[in-house]
Fold these 3 entries.
Entry 1:
Amino acid sequence: MTTTLRTSRWLVAVMAAALVLPAPALAQQKVTLKLNLGTPAGNPYNVGADAFKKMVEADTNGAVTVQIFPMAQLGGETESAKNVQLGTLEATIVSTSNLATFNDKFAVFSVPYMFKSVSCSFPVVDGAVGQEMSDQLLKIARMRVLGYPTFGARHLLNTKRKVIHPDDLKGLKIRAPDPLLEATWRALGANPTPLPFPEVFNALQQGVIDGDANPLTSMQTFRWYESTKYVSFTNTAVGIGVFIINEPFFQKLSKPHQDVILKAAAESIKANRASEADLNKKAEAFLRTQGVNFDTPNQDEFRAKLTPVFDEAKKRFGADLLERIAAAQKGC
């Protein structure tokens, strides 16, 4: 057999083998996962994302590269969620209120005083309730939930005055990013004002709104303290994010790489939650140095005014779901 003939047969054999390689083997080629965030570096979301990127790239030996785009470089949360569904963006973190357009059940987390605390929200979203919502989102929108990071407790902040009792809210224009929070502030006597998150800084300075309910970390990060000098620890709601990835993209990955993504996501949630707890304490200390006044109102007074909101939530989401969320927090 001539050398040329042997070489030709070897090439044919190699090509034939390549043709029968299983899909997972072909998926070993290098891929890029773009992760868009609406928050800046150092935010609890970003801390978790950084941990995710580091672990994915290390455990896939660079076969999967994670590119993080902070400060909504690839669009806001609603736009990003739509792009993940379409597959033009691989992954993002979006608040539950902004995912309600895909699955209305996510809006239940905007019901005021649904959670006793930030940490008490974890057994809910990590348990059966969170898993059911994840399964529904996957079925409805082809978006896989990788975990539920937190952005902290929503406390009332405002530019006008101390708020210790519900009556202190009368006449204040408070940002309401979703219908449930809109109903909440209206029931408490405030004037709810719909406003996109990126507009909060200018709106506070220009008097378009008098206040908002958001974590202390956001107040520090986005410099709202420059015009806002009053914070009431109302714990109105707990901010829950949803780390989502496009399902077709995920399925194109090899099984080992899928396992890495899932494991890295779980670790990123741990990093996010630890970071939020730490940064919240640091944010309060910093805000005090900026002259921000803090008050701790009796939350029961606020709850007592919200009976109509709670009744509407039962009709919308079902008493069973609300009871299961409460039951998951027992002993918390």
Entry 2:
Amino acid sequence: MGPRVIACLALGALLCAPAVQGAQKKSAKPPAAEKAAPNHTSEHHEFGVIGHSFHGSGSGEARLKKALDDESEAALAFVVVTGIKAVEEPCSDRLYAKRRELLDDAKRPVIVLPSASDWSECRNSAGRSNAPERLNRLRELLYPEPESLGAHKLKLTRQSSNPKFRSYAENVHWQVDEVLYATINLPANNNHYRPEAGRNSEFEDRLVANRFWLQRLFAMARREKMRALVLFSEGDVKALAQRSGFSALLDRASTKADGFEEPRRQIAALSAKFNGKVLLVDTDLTAPKKAPTIEWRGNLGHLSLGSQAVEVVVTPEREPMFTLQGAADEK
């Protein structure tokens, strides 16, 4: 073989080498790397709700720990917990921090919903209401990061990310599949409405924040074409009992102020304009105790738990969209 032929072969090898190497690199890429696997299937996901564990006699902390342990055994996307203390327990930073540690040890992502006993029923040494100060401290200790508690974190969007509502870190929203989830601070003691003159500044400010929060949630659900919006609160706004016409006028003329009147009317109005389902989940201990069931009126549903714990299976593309897996009273 002559020198000219050898040189031509060598030059051909050099010209082909990049193409061969490129082909090898392309084929070496694993198929799994091209598309990351989703966290949940499009068919269904599950979440847990733990009602107010700090009720009646006995150790509420032990009840909450047991409920968290039970929920850790299930494949849940997240767990919503209402309340971190009993009314008779101190509203102290030390207790708040201790309960946060308990929640942060949970295996599943935990979203904490503040209860009336956590802040709005707190009093100082003189016996006067200490609610606003304790709520602000609770926000600092429980809601400082844009994520859930628990060993596995879930990214959350807090209302406090809006400069106009920088204080309201307890109101959060997140998404799983085609369902938008959110919490809203509506304590069960009549939404912390105070009948005394000049004592409702906290209630009125939070009313404004919650009004904007609900508008944002429903606007987002419509824009993103969500199949459902699930809203968690401690208090039961009684949206399924929303009344109109002359009956509503009589209700508003009543001498007994209803702290849930505005959010009730707003939720009913916004739900009527939403094509998906709206499920309200509350943990009001004053509601009649019965087995948890989801009641529907049109696209608006209601689930009341009190102190009970349930797991909810969500199938966004099938009916029924929400089914209860099991219920247990945390006695």
Entry 3:
Amino acid sequence: MTTAPIPPEDSYGRDPYRREPYSQDQYRQAAPAPPPDNRPRVDAGKLWPGGVATGVVAALVALVGVLVCRWLFGIPLLAPKSDGAYGDVHTTDLVLLAAAAALVATGLMHLLLLSTPRPLTFFAWIIGLATVLAVLLPFSTSAPLTAKVATAVVDLVLGIAIGSLLNGVAARSIRMPPAGGGTGYVTTGGSYAEQPGGYADRQGPRDFS
């Protein structure tokens, strides 16, 4: 059995069998695509306006609390009764402090969302303990008992308002990367709910509760 001799290449270096030469690209494996970025993101455009709105609510809660205590119940909260229903500069300080506390809590929430697992749980504990401290602090002063109780109640309502409002705002400020298709997961009240056109974590949902 004989085999036909392989014809030599022509003078131009072309294969007489008209075979296409293999390029290096045909042997080179495609570089693996980078893994998708499945990290959740915080929508600051929703979180911070919600925090500012929470600050306004907190300031109004403090103001209404002082007015109710002083005008409706006649309790000398933050100032003597002779200063009227509003009181003095201490009332203004409390209103501004309540608004500032809401903004600080918003910054804390943003930091927790970016850096910790279950940020809403950590935030609830921090705000809860801070509220307990604010409630107990008036009883260390020499003010009348009625003023101490009134201040503690106002502080308690402020803590509940700031904590609950920011929890709701933060739960709706968490965005998950799209997983393709029209169905995904969005955060609703700290949990995941399947919604058309939402977001999903391709590696499984992260627990933000």
